[in-house]
Amino acid sequence: MSTLAAGLRSIPFALVGSASARLHDLTSADAAIRMPLTLNRRIGLVQACGGAGASTVAAGVASIFATRRSGLVLGVNASGGAQNLLWHAGVPTLPGALPPARTRPLSAADAAAGLPVARSGLIGLDLRDPAHPTTPVPSRTWFDRINPVSRFFDLAITDWGVRGYQIDLAQVALASHVLCVVTPSRRHELEDAAAVIPALTGVEDGPQVVLVIVDVSGSSRGQALPDVGSDLGVPVLRIPHDPSAGSATPVASAHMSARTRIAYAQLAGTIMTQAQLSLGAELRHREATA
């Protein structure tokens, strides 16, 4: 039994409901997280409004991938926030300017040289301009920096931060094999996020899409939310409110609630399942055009 699934034994019975069902869910999630990939996959997380929790979620799943997978995992910050994926994941901050671009790396070691590494093994790359640290990274910068090196990483997870759906969404989608649209559980923001899903899923050769609903404030616990999963045709995952939310320092997974750790594991497993679907579609497209 994997250590992830075995950890269920320490969680109170009332917390997880049916222990056998939850154990099955976690075991399935862990198997999906560990699935081998024949090609690298790019995972994006984006939000339409500030405070949706995309950076925290990105750090949670990126840390799981770095810990549970054997290949190299790259965490990329393209957001304009100080508390971004890298901050939440505990990636050390390097002083000075942005590391020079690797235009033609010859190996994984070359691609990762000089980049900071978190205790989880997550390798970090902050694309922000040090002179303008609160400005979101232009999509062109992302393509210039990530395209030459992405093949050396099993997974590249990008925190895109807040992006206007009418302006940046097409480029964010183009950069992703799997795109997680992160939204607060508040009804208005949730309905707005759900409204963009058909535009994403309707794009030819577009990304696999996952809707992630985060209970940011804890106010939605026990409240009925719109049933957005039945007609969107995409996986819908919910992240519960965690008591550690809003901490002034990064929070290790061991200090998160059991509900949160379970939700992150299930989201990571869902992302890998969607990554496999995108890989299958890409391989079929290559065969058809060969």
Give an overview in words.
The radius of gyration is 18 Å and the shape is globular. The protein has helices at residues 3-6, 13-16, 19-33, 54-68, 85-88, 108-112, 139-146, 169-174, 187-201, 258-289, and strands spanning 41-47, 73-77, 123-126, 155-162, 178-184, 208-214, 236-239. The chain is 37% helix and 14% strand. The protein is built from ten helices and seven strands. The protein has a seven-stranded parallel β-sheet with strand order 3-2-4-1-5-6-7, with helices on both faces. The chain has 290 residues and is an alpha/beta fold.
Could you give a quick summary of the protein structure above?
The protein is an alpha/beta fold. 37% of the residues lie in helices and 14% in strands.
Outline the low-pLDDT stretches.
Answer: 1-16
How can the largest sheet be summarized? Answer: 7 strands, parallel
- N- to C-terminal separation? 42 Å
Q: By helix and strand content, what is the structural category?
A: alpha/beta
- Write down how many β-strands occur, each being a DSSP E stretch of 2 or more residues: 7
User: What's the helical proportion of residues?
Assistant: 25-40%
Sequence of strands across the biggest β-sheet: 3-2-4-1-5-6-7
Name the shape in a single word. globular
Whole-number mean pLDDT = 86
Beta-strand portion reads 5-15%
One letter per element, helices H and strands E, the order comes to HHHEHEHHEHEHEHEEH
Computed Rg: 18 Å
How many alpha or pi helices? 10
